[in-house]
């Protein structure tokens, strides 16, 4: 098996694109975003980016990695967020996306159950099962306690 940078580049070029699109080597990504390749390595070491690797261990950045890198650079360059803050923001975004997915699944489940209940005629059963009661009178309101206007006067004490 051939070794070296040329072999790695050939392997990367021959590797089929994933479902998300193309892959880019570290030098290409660094020049696209005007950053040093060491910065990309730092982001990977800190766990902010997770590029895939070739058999020769060359980093390959997907379209999703590039989108994530854009967010990281926006936070660091434009908003002045440090890397620890970037990690927190990215984790919060992932959790929010996960929660949105869970809420969507729940809403779909409820819709499915409502359609099923309606098809089974549960509406009639609900109406027959509920007992209609006349509105009950409201309970009397509690007497309103007046606050003293003079801070020296304590409520319940004799007036001077």
As an assembly, this protein is single chain
The CATH topology annotation of one domain reads as Multidrug-efflux Transporter Regulator, Chain: A, Domain 2
Q: Please state the average pLDDT score.
A: 82
Return the CATH class of one domain: Mainly Alpha
Give the topology.
Elements: H1 5-14, E1 23-25, H2 26-33, H3 37-45, E2 52-53, E3 59-62, H4 63-78, H5 83-119, H6 122-129
Antiparallel strand pairs: 1-3, 2-3
Structure overview:
With 160 residues, this protein is mainly alpha-helical. It has a domain at 9-119: Multidrug-efflux Transporter Regulator, Chain: A, Domain 2, CATH 1.10.1660.10. Helix content is 55%, strand content 6%. The chain contains six helices and three strands, in the order αβααββααα. It has helices spanning 5-14, 26-33, 37-45, 63-78, 83-119, 122-129, and strands at 23-25, 52-53, 59-62. It has a three-stranded antiparallel β-sheet.
